[in-house]
Design a protein that fits this description.
Strand content: 5-15%
CATH architecture of one domain: 3-Layer(aba) Sandwich
Radius of gyration: 24 Å
Shape: elongated
Number of helices: 17
Oligomer: single chain
Number of strands: 14
Helix content: 40-55%
Strand order of the largest sheet: 3-2-1-4-5-6
CATH superfamily of one domain: NAD(P)-binding Rossmann-like Domain
Distance between the termini: 60 Å
CATH class of one domain: Alpha Beta
Largest sheet: 6 strands, parallel
Structural class: alpha/beta
Length: 436
């Protein structure tokens, strides 16, 4: 099939490359000429494991192309995916769908053949209706169906998620569109990925409900971690104890400094706004957002406590800046709250991240970025692990101790075993586990 992807950002590029890898012919359209030129030269603007290889392979095979011209992108298209950003709107937290509507308008103006227009972007309930109305006004005689197909990709594992999804949610009441979408995803039949067909509004809300629920699980286990510390329990064992119940499941039960990233923060806010607009307030999600925001800033207090109550004139080594491993994404990363709080307490920051330092440099000031974890630790009075990159999971503890001015580690991801760190002479603080 001939597929067009409007937007060559994270979702659009991953989705387009994977569709091409299935054998479809894909054109990615983006208004950023520099990005398009870079992609044509084989330069990937984001870090996602394996993406560069898939893009290169399919460009070489002639199944994947990039352009800035919407007409060129739609020339042979049967299905057009809209995969542009929907950031939180300033002032009210509602999702800004202006980029989605602009893309839909351009599609309608350039369309010369029957199309299925698919919203891959995360959009509030009713956006599909708005797009459908716009298309009908601009091209009243054209056969254009509007479908919702939300994405459920995890950054750092997006290719695996796309090719082996838990489910594919498709919102449409149009039987022809249903058949076309079934053909689009037919390559996944061997993996027995369930296609869940719903109404369009149901599909739109399903995306928000999924992200809000996962954010709730994270926030819940973080609160249990705080309680575990007070009563002398172990949150990791608690998480295993409840996670083995298949009604709960073990995923997203890892205590830490709070959730971040491109989806959970903005989607939770957008769901709250939608719920209030329709007179069905989501008090649970409102609390989740409030608790999570406070948790990020509270993490700095742990470092201050570990450093004998004061950071004035001291140096703190920070390992991990991105919101999670295997991405260079800094959006709503816990480090963006923790690092400034440490600086406000008087600390000098030496930081390292395997992929995120370039992006972090645009968002954090007065930070010394280091080439590796041991350089970051050199002369530091305390070291804090914010992101659980593999590169930090097996550090040479003797070398680390020699680099530090004081053997203090605050592990916000529970990477290490407390007894082992204590045996090496470290003052070690983790999340929700009894001190040794």
């Amino acid at each position: 099939m001939h597929i067009t992807m409007i937007g060559a950002g994270y979702v659009g590029l991953v989705s387009g490359a994977c569709f091409a890898d299935f054998g479809h012919n894909v054109v990615c359209v983006d208004t950023d000429a520099a990005k398009v030129a870079a992609l044509r030269d084989g330069k990937i603007p984001i870090f996602e494991p394996g993406l560069d290889e898939i893009v290169a392979r399919n460009v070489k095979a002639g199944r994947l192309a990039f352009t800035t011209k919407i007409a060129e992108g739609l020339a042979k298209a049967e299905v057009v995916f809209i995969a542009v950003g929907t950031p939180s709107r300033r002032g009210d937290g509602h999702a800004d769908i202006s980029y989605v509507l602009a893309a839909a308008r351009e599609i309608a103006q350039a369309a010369t053949r029957p199309l299925v227009v698919v919203t891959k972007s995360t959009v509030p309930v009713g956006t599909g209706d708005e797009i459908e109305k716009m298309l009908a006004e601009i091209k009243p005689k054209a056969k254009i169906s509007v479908v919702s197909n939300p994405e459920f990709l995890r950054e750092g594992a997006a290719i695996e998620d796309f090719k082996r999804p838990d489910r594919i949610v498709i919102g449409t009441g149009d039987e022809d569109a249903r058949k076309i979408m079934t053909a689009v995803y037919r390559p996944l039949n061997l993996n027995q990925a369930p296609l869940l067909f719903t109404g369009r509004r149901t599909a739109e809300l399903t995306k928000y409900a999924a992200n809000a629920f996962l954010a709730t699980k994270i926030t819940f286990i973080n609160e249990m971690a705080d309680l575990a510390e007070k009563v002398g329990a172990n949150v990791q064992e608690i998480a295993r104890g409840i996670g083995l119940d298949n009604r709960i499941g073990s995923k997203f039960l890892h205590a830490g400094p709070g959730y971040g990233g491109s989806c959970f923060p903005k989607d939770a806010l957008a769901l709250i706004k939608t719920a209030n607009d329709f007179g069905a307030p989501s008090r649970i999600v409102e609390t989740v957002v409030s608790v999570n925001d406070k948790r990020k800033s509270d993490m700095a207090e742990r470092v201050i406590t570990a450093a004998s109550g004061s950071l004035k004139g001291k140096t703190v080594a920070v390992l991990g800046l991105t919101f999670k491993p295997n991405t260079d994404d800094m959006r709503d990363a816990p480090s963006l709250a923790i690092v400034p709080a440490l600086q406000a307490a008087g600390a000098k920051i030496q930081a390292h991240d395997p992929e995120g330092m370039e992006a972090a440099a645009k968002l954090l000031s007065d930070v010394t970025f280091c080439s590796g974890p041991y350089e970051a630790a050199k002369g530091a009075n305390a070291l804090v692990i914010i992101t659980e990159w593999d590169a930090y999971r097996a550090l040479d503890l003797s070398k680390l101790k020699s680099a530090l001015a004081e053997p203090v580690i605050v592990d916000l991801r529970n990477i290490y075993v407390p007894a082992e760190l204590a045996a090496k002479g470290f003052r070690y603080m983790s999340i929700g586990r009894p001190p040794v």
